[in-house]
Amino acid sequence: MNILFLDDNPKVCAKYHTDRDCESRLIDYVSLLITRNVHLNKVCDIFELLDYNQLTNVSGDMFDWVCSDDLHYLWLYRLTANIVSENLIRFDTPMFLANSILKAIAPGQINNKDYARAHKGNIIKDAPVHVPTNCEVGGDVVESYRNWYRDGCMLSRAKWTHRNPPKWYTEQFVVGSV
What we know:
It is globular and about 45 Å long. The chain has a domain of 121 residues. It is mostly helical. α1 crosses α5, α2 crosses α4 and α2 runs antiparallel to α5.
């Protein structure tokens, strides 16, 4: 399971997801959020509508990252909510079940300072990076994922309906120390 960290800001990050990733990553992101809630014994009524045992077969360092800090959860929650919005903008597809799940697992009271931090970065700097070694830029999560998008393996996914491709997408591959 992988979170595509294409920007520090979760709203911008969602815009940078290709069409294919807007559709395919939604289930991954929702699964990570649900699993964290189940892990913390925060099972909601909406889960009765789902086979959440199948959805919550999640583990690994990405799951550990989401669980390690409430702000990581908030960042992923905001990314997921914005991916739902992107699906509506790009495909005119309302994601009713995803919206219902997001409402059920919404983070509790969060002070303005924490909310702002979750939107300004510094939150994902310690996130795991799951990209090929040639795409990694040591210490830069976002640039590593952008390199992966720019890399040839992502060309078949490079479509943004009702969106312009990100400016960085057409820039040169960034080389860094791994």
